[in-house]
Write a structure and sequence with these properties.
The chain folds into 2 domains: about 200 residues, no CATH class; about 100 residues, Pdz3 Domain (Roll), CATH 2.30.42.10. About 50% of the residues lie in helices and about 20% in strands. It has 10 helices and 11 strands. The chain is elongated. The chain starts with a helix and ends with a helix.
């Protein structure tokens, strides 16, 4: 089920991206030869007007084939050259390229907004003014590898209901209370009650804290008090846009840090998740509920937009960068150079994806 849901999410995200290219290309009178669902080999297709709409075997996204996107003699100087992408004004080419990226930002905004309408998980204290978080719980955000929490079985998303020792039990738990309770008990065994996913059953685990780098007792988790907030339509779209911007900023900072670390030798594949890892995350999100799945799809949509905006050959950002160079130099780049650079960039991206996928597989064992 997780694989099927992941494929559907990926299909929607990529098709929305490609539809942005498709719509703006049509608007500017650029010939669009094919809009494909999935990737070849082709199963069947139907032509409406000048565009063929195809269904392909590999259901992992889609593509749009725009006449003149990869310059050659036919689309540069042929009989239909006036409708070629490469012969349109640079500003029109830039809009067509950026439209896919922008479409993913719009989709994320829409998904976040729908989430707020149905009830989106929100940390206590960050709710919009005049609204109250419903049913707040202390939630485990992340668990450190090899920590007491991981060894005991705690996972991200678990809701902590109570904590107790031999003499006392605390039911109204928040981050400060739990931290103080762990510190006050030193390295003595404590018991934590939690619920996971949609289950109403309280699970009990026993943990012996360890001393952390601050010389304080710790079980190795980050946590936050999270509840549900439901908003009316207009407020939902307002807050959805704010969340879209917040996630975008956070993703850009995280990506910058990842690239910076890789240049100074601190980069690690542990911080990158590929398709196989995504399937596992989809399964967890689906277990917690539909709104969590919407939020996850929105996060991936933002990531897809940002990655495509990177000025690297074969990505939309790389093609936009080539347009910038052409604008500055006042003439076109050599088509052979541009096409070769995009091909090499595509190969590098495929190799990187293989390495990430391999690392995902290794982490399963």
């Amino acid at each position: 089920m997780s694989i099927l849901i992941f494929i559907i999410i990926l299909l929607v995200l990529v098709l929305v991206h490609e539809f942005g290219h498709f719509l703006t290309a049509k608007k500017f009178g650029i010939r669009v030869d094919e809009f494909g669902f999935g990737f070849p080999p082709k199963l069947f297709g139907k032509k409406y007007g000048e565009t063929e709409y195809s269904i392909n075997l590999l259901p992992i996204g889609g593509f749009v084939k725009i006449f003149g996107e990869n310059p050659d003699e036919e689309n540069t100087n042929g009989p239909d050259a006036s409708r070629s992408f490469v012969n349109k004004p640079i500003w029109q080419q830039a809009i067509v390229l950026f439209a896919g990226i922008f479409s993913n930002f719009l989709l994320a905004w829409f998904l976040f907004s729908i989430g707020f309408m149905f009830g989106l998980p929100t940390s206590v204290g960050s709710e919009p003014k005049g609204y109250t978080v419903i049913d707040p719980h202390l939630v485990v955000i992340s668990v450190l590898d090899q920590s007491p929490a991981e060894k005991s079985g705690l996972k991200s998303g678990d809701k902590i209901i109570f904590v107790k020792n031999k003499d006392d039990i605390v039911l109204d738990v928040n981050p400060d209370i739990l931290k103080s309770f762990i510190i006050s008990n030193g390295n003595k065994e404590i018991e934590i009650g939690y619920i996971r996913g949609k289950s109403k059953i309280i699970n009990n685990i026993k943990i012996i804290p360890i001393t952390n780098y601050n010389n304080e007792s710790s079980i190795g988790i980050s946590m936050n008090e999270i509840g549900i907030i439901k908003l009316p339509i207009l407020q939902a779209f307002k807050e959805g846009l704010k969340l879209d911007w917040f996630v975008t900023k956070g993703t850009v900072v995280g990506l910058y840090k990842l690239i910076e670390d890789s240049f100074i030798g601190k980069g690690s594949f542990d911080t990158i998740t590929g398709p196989i890892g995504m399937v596992s995350i989809v399964g967890d999100a689906f277990q917690f509920g539909f709104v969590y799945l919407l939020s996850f799809a929105a996060l991936i949509s933002v990531n897809l937009a940002i990655i495509n905006f990177i000025p690297f050959p074969a990505l939309d950002g790389g093609r936009l960068f080539f347009l910038l160079i052409e604008k500055i130099k006042g003439s076109r780049l050599n088509p052979k150079f541009a096409n070769t650079a995009n091909m090499v960039g595509f190969i590098i991206l495929i190799i990187l994806m293989i390495f990430v996928t391999y690392h995902d597989v290794i982490k399963l064992f």
